[in-house]
Write the structure tokens for this entry.
Amino acid sequence: MIVLGFESSCDETGVALVCAKRGVLAHALHSQVAMHAEYGGVVPELASRDHVRHVIPLTRQVLKDAQLTLEDVDALAYTAGPGLAGALLVGAGAAQSIAWSLGKPAFAIHHLEGHLLSPRLADPKPEFPFVALLVSGGHTQLMQVRHVGDYTLLGETLDDAAGEAFDKTAKLLGLGYPGGPALSRLAEEGDPRAFDLPRPLIHRPDLDFSFSGLKTAVLQRTKTLGGLDQMTHQQRADLAAATQMAIVDVLVSKATAAMRQVKSPRLVVAGGVGANALLRKRLYAQAEKFGFEVYFPPLDLCTDNGAMIAYAAAERLNAGLLDPKGQSDIFEVRARWPLDQLSHQSTP
Ligand code: KG4
Ligand code: ZN
């Protein structure tokens, strides 16, 4: 079973060919980061137009890389939400039109389910059940995963997502967009103990997060130091290191609490922030200390990509949660779509 998957929910156009048995056959990505950088964030209308420009060339590229033709594809899959509606429609439109032309099925996939299952593309592959820490630019959630399609929300952010906290504080420190990778690079030169930043909700027994207070605290520290212009490179690096440490402390503490609460044998980390080296190191240490296993997606599949979408469709088909004949001729996308409300038939 070969699935051609499309991801276009935000600022990456991702197309991939995934084989249910052999894993990723080819995946290609076009990042819009440079285009949005001058605006300091994603401009939805520009994002949609750029997806239109790249979706077909990327499709040609993965077919060429895998030495396959469209005739070899058994099914198509696309991100149907959550995300930017106009951007989502590009992937949905591409997948549905190719599907119609070939007489093959096209499946609507939930973006976060793609992230959540993507660590299963790694070797070794985490078996079910597990607790997932989903940390992307738009979401921070702890999810109990019993099987494909069987998800219970354990806790989530009450305001900003972890990735958003990285992006917003990076902006305050004069770093580019997206802020996560830039902030963690600068943090390598800094001392995290140089500034004492809040760890919101860390001592609360529930599994919810809050990150919005952190950016206010970072803003106050920069003001106390006379603003960005007056700060030395070392002060900026120290503040970056302290910010990263505060975010990671909260994520590690809540993820460990979830593992103890659910008594799960394994933790799976997914989403863009899962690429963060400090988070990886600290969670490996917790896993050793508390006797659980921890899994991350392959580094190149942490952030948005088409492989996770194709793979989620393959997993759903394999679990009998999708009608192999496909879905209706009408397709819709959903800007908002809670993962734990995902029906067994993933029609949006
Ligand atoms: O999952 P993702 O690619 O997109 C969404 O679905 O949102 O996540 C993007 C987020 C951005 O906020 C980015 O700053 C963050 O992941 N990110 C990182 C790192 N790489 C990406 N955050 C911290 N450290 C990183 N190395
Ligand atoms: Zn994502």
Summary: The radius of gyration is 20 Å. The CA atoms of residues 105 and 326 lie 4 Å apart. Strands lie at 2-7, 12-19, 23-31, 75-81, 106-110, 130-135, 140-147, 150-156, 266-270, 293-295.
